[in-house]
């Protein structure tokens, strides 16, 4: 049964009902693609194409990219159509970029468990791995651009912005800006025509350039302190499951602990240790919300020698327990 969330194809969540005895499952393919959930063994080359039941009895939804046209790495969709189907009001974790430009109406969604209002002039950028939940989107109007992480060639500021996890995920701009509207329309026309991959990538970069130009900066300056923070943030993103101390990052950042701490405080207003702990806790919340991983397995994946130590850490950071996070 085709749901609203992708009636036109593009990426979608595939939902498999539990098969009757000896029968085959019923495949549902709305907008987001096949569910891709690592098995409990921890092997990431195995996936299941059905919802997994967690302790609360809720379906688990992972999100992969599956374009309507084979080999098409970019999709342009209308809001609110993109926010329907089986993922409506349920947390999902896409493995691709979703950039939304709101041109009218009002709504609400949550990114990494933080609710946020959407209105005309809002630009939001969901990066691969972030948890997204639609709260209210029926009255929204605008455009959503979806694309895989590898479609933007490195060396351009749009690609650098897309790859930087500490860049803003929401900002405001004039949705009637002719540069924005023309670039978005150009992308739609290129996608509607039999275009080559290079033309599509160029049109995507053109559409994203005025949006990125309107985004606020990461820090208050572009000096050495900001450079240290950028290196620290990138190193944390790559190593946080294995390295839980700020001192573990000195070699990768090429700076001492005190310098790292100063740079994080200037860029984020918190200590470097707090920044590191918040990233670790966020990953735990993401995994608990979108997979059936056990607490013990998650503790191991995130570098905790004992599950009890992980539970204590999670309670300190979130005020609740991993088990209650799924209720």
TrEMBL record:
GO terms of molecular function: DNA-binding transcription factor activity; sequence-specific DNA binding
Keyword list, A-Z: DNA-binding, Transcription, Transcription regulation
Pfam family, one: AraC_binding
Residue span, HTH araC/xylS-type domain: 230-327
Name of the protein: AraC family transcriptional regulator
């Amino acid at each position: 049964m085709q749901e609203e969330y992708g009636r036109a194809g593009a990426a979608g969540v595939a939902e498999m009902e539990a098969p009757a005895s000896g029968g085959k499952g019923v495949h549902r393919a709305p907008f987001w693609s096949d569910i891709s959930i690592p098995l409990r063994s921890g092997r990431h080359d195995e996936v299941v194409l059905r919802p997994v039941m967690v302790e609360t009895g809720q379906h688990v939804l992972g999100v992969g990219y599956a374009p309507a046209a084979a080999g098409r790495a970019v999709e342009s969709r209308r809001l609110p159509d993109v926010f329907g189907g089986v993922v409506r009001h349920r947390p999902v974790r896409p493995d691709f970029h979703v950039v939304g430009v709101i041109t009218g109406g009002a709504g609400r969604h949550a990114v990494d468990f933080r609710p946020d209002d959407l209105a005309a002039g809002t630009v939001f950028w969901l990066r691969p791995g972030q948890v997204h939940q639609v709260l209210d989107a029926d009255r929204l109007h605008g455009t959503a651009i979806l694309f895989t992480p590898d479609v933007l060639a490195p060396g351009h500021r749009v690609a650098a912005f897309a790859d930087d996890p500490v860049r803003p995920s929401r900002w405001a701009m004039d949705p009637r800006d002719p540069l924005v509207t023309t670039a978005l329309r150009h992308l739609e026309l290129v996608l509607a025509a039999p275009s080559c991959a290079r033309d599509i990538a160029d049109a995507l970069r053109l559409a994203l350039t005025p949006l990125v130009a309107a985004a606020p900066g990461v820090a208050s300056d572009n000096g050495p302190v900001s450079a240290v923070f950028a290196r620290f943030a990138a190193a944390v993103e790559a190593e946080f499951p294995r390295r839980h101390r700020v001192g573990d990052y000195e070699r990768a950042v090429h700076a001492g602990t005190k310098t790292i701490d100063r740079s994080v405080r200037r860029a984020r207003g918190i200590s470097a240790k707090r920044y590191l702990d918040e990233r670790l806790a966020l990953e735990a919340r993401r995994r608990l919300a979108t997979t059936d991983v056990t607490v013990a397995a998650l503790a191991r994946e995130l570098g905790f020698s004992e599950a009890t130590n992980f539970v204590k850490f999670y309670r300190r950071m979130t005020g609740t327990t991993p088990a209650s996070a799924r209720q």
